[in-house]
Structures
1.
Amino acid sequence: MSEKRKPEECVKMILPVRDALEILSGRWKLPIIVSLSFGKKRFKEISRDVRGITDKMLSKELKELEINQLITRTVYDTFPQP
C-alpha cells in the first residue's frame, strides 16, 4: 500500500521536475540540445540545424543552457579550415 504524504512533502518532490521544465522551456532549447546531441558543433552549424532561430536568440539560449550546466562551451583561438 502507498503511504499518504503531507502536502509539503509533495511540493518538495515536485520542485526538481518544475526546475527541469523551467530550464528546458521555450521554443528553442530542445532543438538546440538535439542538434548538439550529434556531436560538438560550431555556432553557425547549430544555427543551420535549428531553422528559424536568429543569431541573437541562439546566443541567448546557449548562454542559458551553459549557465544551467546542460552544455559546455569551448573557445578556440583559430578559425575552422574551409
2.
Amino acid sequence: MTLHPLAQLRAAAGLSHPAYARLVAETHAALGLGDMAARREKVSRWESGRTIPEHSAQLAMAHIHHVPATEVCRLGWPHWLYLASRDAGLLSAPHTGEGAALVLDSTLHLADAPRSPSLLLEGRALAEQVRGALVRLAEAADAAVLDAAGPLTERLDWAQARIEALEEHENGTLLPLDALYTAALSEHRHLVTLITTPPGGLPVSGLLYHLAARTSMLCAWLSSAAGEETRAERHVLAALRAAAASGSRPLTSAALTRLALRHLLAGSPSDALMLLRAARAADPRPAPGTDVQFHGHRALALAHLADRAASRQALDYASRAVTRGATTAEMAARHHAVAVNRALVSLHLGRLKTARRQFGPLTEHLTTPQSCPPSPYTAQWLRYAVETHLALGEVDVAVHATHRALDLAGALPEGLALQFRQVLGSRQHEPLVRQALDRLRDPRG
C-alpha cells in the first residue's frame, strides 16, 4: 500500500503520530491560529485519507515543511505536500526551458521500490499543468529547431541513434524490462546532464529537449510495463515539460496521450478525457501510432463512464488507424493493443463473458512463439485476463494465464509481480492460486 505523502514527510522527519500531532498544535498556536488539540488520531485519519485537515491546520503543517501558504490554497490537499518532497519541481517549476531542466533532473533518482499507484497530479492541479504546457508549446513551436548543429552535433546524432534503437523495443522485445529501463535511464541521464550543465555554457537547443522528452517517454512506458505506474507518471510529466519546451507538437501530443493512460489505470476517467482533449489541441493530426493510442484510451475512458456507444465508436477509429504508416512490427503491436482495449472495454462495461471470449484467443496468441518478439506489455495484458477469469469464478484458467505470463517473462519485475499478487490475493485460499503466488514470490518454482 502506498504511503500517504503526509506519512512520508512525517516518517522522513522521524516523528511518531503523537509527536507530529504535538508539533502541529504548537505551530498552530505560535502562528496565532488558535489552540488545537494534539491528538494522534487526527494525524492517523489525515494519513488514511478519511478526513482532510482544516485549513488552519494545513497552514501550520505548511509552515513546518517550508511550503508557502499560497501554495496550500493553489494546489489544495494533499497536492501541496509534494512541494516538501523530491516531487516539488513537478508541481512548482515554471513552464520555461529552465523549469523543464529542473523537472527532468528530478526524475533521475525516482524510487525503485514497488508500490501501489499514487498519482502526483489530478483534477485542478493537473489541468493547471496542462494549460501551462500548452502555452509553452505555443510559444516555442514557431521557433523550434530540431536539427543538430554546433559542437554537440556528432554526440547528439549518436544519442538519437541509440534512442531509436531503444524505441524499437516497444513493438516487441525478448530483453528483460529492467535491463531496458537501465539503458533508457542511462541515456536520459546523459541528455539531462547536457541540459543542466551545457558544455562551454552553450545555450540549450530545442533538439536536446526533444531527445530528453523521448528518453522520458521511454522510461515512462518501460516503468508502466513493469507495473511501476507511480514512476511512469513522473517520467511522462517530465516528458510533457521537455516536449513543450522543444516546440514539438507531435511529441507533446504523444506525452499527453500517454499521461491519459496513467489516469485510466490509477486515476479518473474524466482527467483522462481532459488530457486527450489537450493532446488533440496540441496536434490535431497526430502520427498514426499516437492516433491508435488516443482512440484506444478514449474508448477505455468512455467505458469507465458507461458510455457504450461512444466507446465502441472510439475502438472503431483505433482499428482504422492500425495499418497507417506502420512497419510489420508496429502493425502487430497496434493490433494487439486494440484487441486488448476491446476486451478491457467489455470488462469495464460489466460484460464479463464477452471479455472472456476476447481474452481467451488473445492469451493464446500473445504467448505463442511468433515471427516478431512479444510486446513488453504482454505480461501486463495477461493480468487483465486473470482479473476477468477470477471475476467469472474460473480460477484454473486465471492461474493458467498467470503461469503463461511467468513462462513468457522468466521473472516478472517486482512492481508487476505485486499487481498479480493483489489480483490473486482474494483467492489465496485456493490450492492452485497458492501455487501461483508461491511461483510469483520465487520464479524458480
